[in-house]
Amino acid sequence: MRLRALLETEGLGLRLLGGEAELDRPVRGVMTTDLRDPSRYLSGGELVLTGLVWHRGGADSEPFVRLLAAAGVAALAVGEAEMHTVPDDLVAACTRHRLPLLAVDTAVSFATVTEYVVRQVSGERAGDLAAVVDRHRRLMTPGPAGGGPDAVLDLLGSDLDLRAWVLSPTGRRIAGSGAPLAEDRAAELAAAHLAVARTGRRGPYRVVLGSTVYALFAVHALGRGAGPVEHMAREPRETALAEWLLAVEADPGDWPTERVDLLQGVTQLIAVERDRRDAARAVRRRLAQEVLELVQAGAAPAEIAARLRVAAPVLLPGGGPAPNWQIAVAALEWSRPRPAQGGAAVLTSLLEEVLATAGHPDGRASDRIAVAYAGDEAVALVPLPPGNADPPHDDGGDPALRPGDAADVSRTAVAAAARDAAGARSAADAARAPGAGDTADASGETSTGGAAAARGAAGASGAAGAVRVRGSGGARDVSGAASTGGGGTDGSARAGGTGADGAAGPGAEAGQDTGGAGRAGADARAGGRGPGLFADEIAAAVREPLAAGLGGDGRLTLGVSAVVHSAEGLRGALEEARHARRVAAARQGPVRAAGHHELASHVLLLPFVPDDVRRAFTARLLDPLRDYDTRHRAELVPTLEAFLACDGSWTRCASRLHVHVNTLRYRIGRIEQLTGRDLARLEDKLDFFLALRMS
């Protein structure tokens, strides 16, 4: 409201003493004070009411008025009840600082003036908000005139001074008012929202992160777009996992009801955009469903390839060569109040968001992912530009062998493996001959020579049985142990590190999630992670928010296939992704993912070992060492881990432990004495390796 309108209001008993030229100033609030310096409580635009208790003499007016003018107040209103007249020095000071001065009649209380101003200002703010929302509606209209959610949030910033963002349930930023929002903070906001929204409590939710207060609103799906959102689950814990949220940097406790209601209206406008995007996704979902049905039905590769040619321009606009493909499979399970599978609509939407959140900075996003639903699983078909194909590699074979090539590859691999195995066995026999047990290393110390040859034999024999040829519907080699030799890249991972097939060594923390098993294999092949989706990156990107949404009764498990280059490879890729998801499901935790590299490692087997077998196996090998360590503080278990991690090199292990080599020899001898094992034998080293991994 304007100061002129306030002055003209009958019943307030206001009269103007000075500042007639400033009557068009807006009044945004009211404050009553008798402090000598009230500036700390002023934000600008207030009508300041005072009873002149602070006025002791003529010298007091100038500093008081100067502070008010500097704070940008709208006007000063003085009550005459105390002094019966307004001092001339105060009138003069207000004139000098061009501050309008009003007198309040003795018959009118400050409370009456305050109530009137508050009521008028609140009503005008509601009207301003209504005008803003009306502008939002025009901006959200389809076509070139519409600006989408970014324009809506820009208006919230410019008109209401509110910083706001639209986030997915995984914390992916969908739109913003231009203000920066760190990825970590976005994940925290999504987690806070899911933790409350799953309870069904009505928003907005007030959240404090650090020293900043946020208001969180759920963006409820309207359900008018085609696709799974039409049948969205009604249970709050599931619905929350598929909903966007509006995060506003402000305290909702300070808002009038009108502002809360109108911001709820803004969420409905954003829901229109969500509905529009779901309608666009429906085309991709139908394409994915058709491809999935063909693959599962064992259709001819030519028929699948024809369907992929239709899908490729939709998922990778711009034409060009046929893309490569990758498959991701996800399942959502609830344990309470009774075991149940997640709804198809929620899981489909959630997998799209998960993969979009974990997307690489190469432009791949949710509009390049097609998700279908089969059984209790969501299946994502992810295109990759053809230039991103994996180069041929030894730890997994060509991800999509053509049926005509599979037999040749298998015969070649088996023959090579047999030759290498024979050579490695001869080396191992020679190593066990008298005088060949130890060889001097560069420092004059010795390392167990038979172990390297034995590893070579194991790697070669593993390769001999590695290649499997499936039916002509999708011949594949999914082995990760086909390379030979004793260099530690033969599939028997180095302890404490990661082998070429991604198997974590015993130096890793016991029981840790090896979702990143593929990192070493990719690094070894291309000096980096290479193209495509990686299970550990997916899990890391979404674990914090989704763990909050899943609570203690939900689990999301994902499996990721290797990259395939043609329709012939899709059937094997689907199988591979489903096997990887089962590996992930065998682990503990609300969000777990596994990749194709883990299917060619001992990591695949360990989760399925019964708990009683695990305990018996590890107790037999490690309990004597732990007991000895407890009694003598001897550190035999850490020594064993380091010895395996150093491939039995006395010098490197002693250096790693910062002990003399003779001390190391004593400890290894004590380990062998307590367990009855020989750490020069591959079988015993492997048993210790597995015991450490399972402990």
Automatic annotation (TrEMBL):
List, as start-end ranges, the regions of compositional bias called Low complexity.
406-452, 470-482
Domain PucR C-terminal helix-turn-helix residues, every copy: 636-693
According to its UniProt record, what is one Pfam family this protein matches? PucR
User: Which superkingdom, per the lineage?
Assistant: Bacteria
| Region annotated Disordered, chain positions | 382-452, 470-528
Every copy of the Purine catabolism PurC-like domain together lies at 6-121
Q: State where composition is biased (Gly residues).
A: 483-505
Question: What InterPro entries does the database record attribute to this sequence?
Answer: CdaR-like_regulators, PucR_C-HTH_dom, PucR_C-HTH_sf, PucR_dom
Please give the PANTHER family that the UniProt record associates with this protein.
CARBOHYDRATE DIACID REGULATOR, CONSERVED PROTEIN
- What is this protein called in UniProt? Regulatory protein
Q: Which organism is it from?
A: Streptomyces tremellae
